[in-house]
Amino acid sequence: MSWVTKTLSSTIGRKLIMALTGLFLILFLTGHVAGNLQLLKSDGGEAFNIYAKFMTTNPAVKLLSYLTYISIIGHVIFSIWLSKTNRAARPVGYGVSTPPSTTISSRNMGILGTIILIFIVVHMQSFWYQMHWGDIPFVTYDGVEYKDLYSIVVFAFQNVWMVIGYVVAMAFLAFHLSHGFASAFQTLGLNHAKYSPAIALIGKIYCIVVPILFASMPVYIYFTQS
Amino acid sequence: MKLTLKIWRQKNASDKGAFVTYPIDGISTDMSFLEMMDVLNEELAIKGEDPVHFDHDCREGICGMCSLYINGHPHGPQQTTTCQLHMRSFSDGETITIEPWRAAAFPVVKDLVVDRGSFDRIIQAGGYVNVNTGGVPDANEIPIPKRVADEAFDSATCIGCGACVAACKNASAMLFTSAKISQLAMLPQGQVERMSRAEKMVAQMDDEGFGACTNTGACEAECPKGISLTNIARMNREYFSASVKSENV
Amino acid sequence: MILDSKSPIGPLAEKWTKHKFNSKLVNPANKRKYEVIVVGTGLAGASAAASLAELGYKVKAFCFQDSPRRAHSIAAQGGINAAKNYQNDGDSVYRLFYDTIKGGDYRSRESNVYRLAEVSVNIIDQCVAQGVPFAREYGGLLANRSFGGAQVSRTFYARGQTGQQLLLGAYSALSRQVANGKVKLYPRTEMMDVVTIDGHARGIVTRNLITGKIETHAAHAVLLCTGGYGNVFFLSTNAMGSNVTAAWRAHKKGAYFANPCYTQIHPTCIPVSGDHQSKLTLMSESLRNDGRVWVPKTVELAQKLRKGEIKPRDIKDEDRDYYLERKYPSFGNLVPRDVASRNAKDVCDEGRGVNETGQAVFLDFRDAINRDSEDAIRARYGNLFDMYQQITGENPYQTPMKIYPAVHYTMGGLWVDYNLSTTVPGLYSLGEANFSDHGANRLGASALMQGLADGYFVVPYTIGDYLAQIGPAPVDTNHPEFAKAEKGVKDAIQKLLSINGTKTVDHFHKALGHIMWEYCGMARNAEGLTKAKGMIQELRKEFWRDVKVLGANEELNQTLEKASRVADFLELGELMVDDALNRSESCGGHFRLESQTPDGEALRDDENFAYAAAWEFMAENSPETLHKEPLVFENVKLTQRSYK
């Protein structure tokens, strides 16, 4: 084994991958939520559609998107690997296990992550797949043709179950982030008496604000466009 | 006090084991938890039943030998060792469930006794400074800032009981391993072998079959000596920087 | 046999240097051909095993705990003395030597004690090099404190966990040698017998505590670093597993047992709360620096306290008897351990004890808190106060602590010469297990010093002299003596398992403890000791007739382990009584009521008792033979201790 694979296959190395991919996905989420805020503009979807085109055609964004795919896949694969190791580390469980003074999220990152993964698959099928390969109507702004993803979005969120599904998924995301954000820094070894409280605070704010913003979009569309 | 004890009984390593329930009466609130177990064992012995085996030695909270998982917590409801837990922490009529530490790297030997040899092997992998007896510099030739010495001390107070492993949902030994790596990484004496120590001890920890860290903080919450999670962060740092910088290809 | 201490002749300060030079050396290439067995992995055992392995010897280390790190040295709180004179307060090797000899009430060997003081400075260097986090000043240099009434600050400490940190240092050195393949570790293994061939120790018999397997191990030399025998009292500050078995079995194989009656009773322990009590917890004696010891002046007030009718704080100052300050104005609450303990017993015997059992005195921090603030006291003793509250449920910031003396340390042990060799060639004894350095009373912070001195800096030199003489011919366990010893061990175990009586092992242990505490404890007299002797003999007979040991040998069987240890305590107890009877003087921790000064202090009889009493085992259930090693004092003048 080379030193790289040796390091990355150790328990700490695998956690490093989890932390780095996790932090990258947090960055991705930040960009994603910022862009999608354009759904809230009451311009009939113009800004959003222009943004969607930019996101699917710009080479730099493309590169970032590949990194995002890799991060998601890496995050999932390494979490499965770690879970296997962790389960093997305690083959016989306890008879009584009162919850320790730890958060529910921190103890259930795997379950939360799995639900989020299912959501991502559904979400990508609904919009990302449609945008790339689906049968989407076109609109024209200032003489340029754009795929009208906005109409797909609005149509999707006419369905109340879809809206509820999204809101619930964002709740799970919030819980996942509530532990994952600060945890990633701890794994990277960034624990410092001065800065860790700030990281924890930012994490708390982030895990509430970002999922609420995401969840607000389908809710807003459902109530304003139906 | 009158209590019901649900205790894990297992004849030996290959036995399957099961919970057995014992009623017990006449327990004083001044008793330590282990003294309550002594009372039970005296009763069992007189009845001709095999006493419940459990590890204990100093009974003053420092040797790290006692190791019971009580009502879902290593060392019971207080943040202390089992030997320092007193019956006044329980209420009359309560049912108390007592189990051994559970981890692949801590196989059960008998009843509540487990084998923690894996901890020794982690230390043997590098938890020391390579100095021979004699021929060392005068003690005051190695000045150490008080703050550093105090912080290293905080890490060095680990008693190696294994409560961190028992508490962790992943049966991870990172708190234990990181406490020793931290102590020596902070002190000037530990600098020479700083990188190889981190690499070797982490490798041994993994080989023993402990799980990974999910940063839940259960270990810190249950550690009778209050060893902090900052040690794990430091170990990670030490490990990454050793991996990148050391010339061990 | 004449007891030859092998103390080198010549000036005190040159003895050790000269002795090292005169000792034979083992050729470096030959060292790996020698096998050494170390029993016990406390400070003495772990340091010896590590140091010998570093020199190149093949070492096997045994401990009954699940890890060498759990040996009871770990529980030492206060600190470790060393004549570094870092504080520039007039300390020196000679002063540490002198204090130790005087503190031991002139019942230790000058040459050994001087060497101890001499190597004490190396110990600190060694421990710091290993990464032991001693307390430091803001400038980064080591901090010291005065301890146990010493007039100089020579005690190095690591919060209240000095023993733990030193042991972890020695354990790390040992672990390093295990990793190097130079030490083979046998945890959860108990030594059951020493094997002697032609009068030399050549190995041991052990029992694997998990499987019950009886095994034999051969070696060129055997080191017993197995600690003290305080658990003969059942209740003591020793760990539950601490036992005399290794030393006692060695004794029965020819090693003389010296001064068994010298036991140290520590004055600041948490009092017994009831019959269920399994052990006593010591609180560092440093508490006496700020705490004031008192009991009510009258029995009536004490009775009201015991019934809970009044609270300690209700008792006015004029109704309190600060008896140590009253009787010893210059030392006050800081009198030596034996004096503080005996006075506590006296006031409780008068009926002025302050807890439900009447066996406790107050240690009050009220005045210190008023003087220095609660925070200052918390900074000094916070962990001890927490521990006290954890155990007793009382808050010592608000109500005085209750304390009572408890058995803490045993100065007696296997007799050893200057080389730490017992009377059996090839069999060494280190640390608390031997009798060598503390005389009749040990000073605070000196136990850690002795354990590490013996292991790091004495035995690695002295053992070479012996090994070089016997030569490196391989040893094995084929000699019939091994089979014989193994059979003896198996038979003894079978005997214990076959009695199937009606009383538990703890029953006998508690009964023995009561006898020892009552008649061979803080104060002894001929009448009581004679009575105790008869009682112990009776109890021993009853034990072998009526003890109930369940289970089998071939499993983890904690009852069997205990039974085997208690059987040895039952024999040792009688020897302690014999020794206490023989020594009709008072000295240090041994207080004979018949021998006291007019004001009730211990009165030595240097003319008749300036010797170490070394007992030779003759046969089962028959009296032992006393050998005397005269103690010659060439450098210090014997004086009567006075702390007035």
Automatic annotation (TrEMBL), chain A:
<keyword id="KW-0812">Transmembrane</keyword>
<feature type="transmembrane region" description="Helical">
    <location>
        <begin position="63"/>
        <end position="82"/>
    </location>
</feature>
<feature type="transmembrane region" description="Helical">
    <location>
        <begin position="198"/>
        <end position="223"/>
    </location>
</feature>
<protein>
    <submittedName>
        <fullName>Succinate dehydrogenase / fumarate reductase cytochrome b subunit</fullName>
    </submittedName>
</protein>
<dbReference type="GO" id="GO:0016020">
    <property type="term" value="C:membrane"/>
</dbReference>
<feature type="transmembrane region" description="Helical">
    <location>
        <begin position="16"/>
        <end position="34"/>
    </location>
</feature>
<dbReference type="InterPro" id="IPR034804">
    <property type="entry name" value="SQR/QFR_C/D"/>
</dbReference>
<keyword id="KW-1133">Transmembrane helix</keyword>
<keyword id="KW-0472">Membrane</keyword>
<feature type="transmembrane region" description="Helical">
    <location>
        <begin position="149"/>
        <end position="177"/>
    </location>
</feature>
<dbReference type="InterPro" id="IPR011138">
    <property type="entry name" value="Cytochrome_b-558"/>
</dbReference>
<feature type="transmembrane region" description="Helical">
    <location>
        <begin position="109"/>
        <end position="129"/>
    </location>
</feature>
UniProtKB/TrEMBL annotation, chain B:
<feature type="domain" description="4Fe-4S ferredoxin-type">
    <location>
        <begin position="149"/>
        <end position="179"/>
    </location>
</feature>
<dbReference type="Pfam" id="PF13085">
    <property type="entry name" value="Fer2_3"/>
</dbReference>
<dbReference type="GO" id="GO:0022904">
    <property type="term" value="P:respiratory electron transport chain"/>
</dbReference>
<dbReference type="GO" id="GO:0051537">
    <property type="term" value="F:2 iron, 2 sulfur cluster binding"/>
</dbReference>
<dbReference type="GO" id="GO:0009055">
    <property type="term" value="F:electron transfer activity"/>
</dbReference>
<dbReference type="InterPro" id="IPR012675">
    <property type="entry name" value="Beta-grasp_dom_sf"/>
</dbReference>
<dbReference type="InterPro" id="IPR006058">
    <property type="entry name" value="2Fe2S_fd_BS"/>
</dbReference>
<dbReference type="GO" id="GO:0009060">
    <property type="term" value="P:aerobic respiration"/>
</dbReference>
<dbReference type="InterPro" id="IPR017896">
    <property type="entry name" value="4Fe4S_Fe-S-bd"/>
</dbReference>
<comment type="similarity">
    <text>Belongs to the succinate dehydrogenase/fumarate reductase iron-sulfur protein family.</text>
</comment>
<protein>
    <submittedName>
        <fullName>Succinate dehydrogenase / fumarate reductase iron-sulfur subunit</fullName>
    </submittedName>
</protein>
<dbReference type="Pfam" id="PF13183">
    <property type="entry name" value="Fer4_8"/>
</dbReference>
<dbReference type="InterPro" id="IPR036010">
    <property type="entry name" value="2Fe-2S_ferredoxin-like_sf"/>
</dbReference>
<dbReference type="InterPro" id="IPR025192">
    <property type="entry name" value="Succ_DH/fum_Rdtase_N"/>
</dbReference>
<dbReference type="InterPro" id="IPR009051">
    <property type="entry name" value="Helical_ferredxn"/>
</dbReference>
UniProtKB/TrEMBL annotation, chain C:
<dbReference type="GO" id="GO:0009061">
    <property type="term" value="P:anaerobic respiration"/>
</dbReference>
<dbReference type="GO" id="GO:0009055">
    <property type="term" value="F:electron transfer activity"/>
</dbReference>
<keyword id="KW-0560">Oxidoreductase</keyword>
<keyword id="KW-1003">Cell membrane</keyword>
<feature type="domain" description="Fumarate reductase/succinate dehydrogenase flavoprotein-like C-terminal">
    <location>
        <begin position="509"/>
        <end position="643"/>
    </location>
</feature>
<dbReference type="Pfam" id="PF00890">
    <property type="entry name" value="FAD_binding_2"/>
</dbReference>
<keyword id="KW-0472">Membrane</keyword>
<keyword id="KW-0813">Transport</keyword>
<dbReference type="InterPro" id="IPR027477">
    <property type="entry name" value="Succ_DH/fumarate_Rdtase_cat_sf"/>
</dbReference>
<comment type="similarity">
    <text>Belongs to the FAD-dependent oxidoreductase 2 family. FRD/SDH subfamily.</text>
</comment>
<dbReference type="InterPro" id="IPR037099">
    <property type="entry name" value="Fum_R/Succ_DH_flav-like_C_sf"/>
</dbReference>
<dbReference type="InterPro" id="IPR003953">
    <property type="entry name" value="FAD-dep_OxRdtase_2_FAD-bd"/>
</dbReference>
<dbReference type="Pfam" id="PF02910">
    <property type="entry name" value="Succ_DH_flav_C"/>
</dbReference>
<keyword id="KW-0285">Flavoprotein</keyword>
<dbReference type="GO" id="GO:0050660">
    <property type="term" value="F:flavin adenine dinucleotide binding"/>
</dbReference>
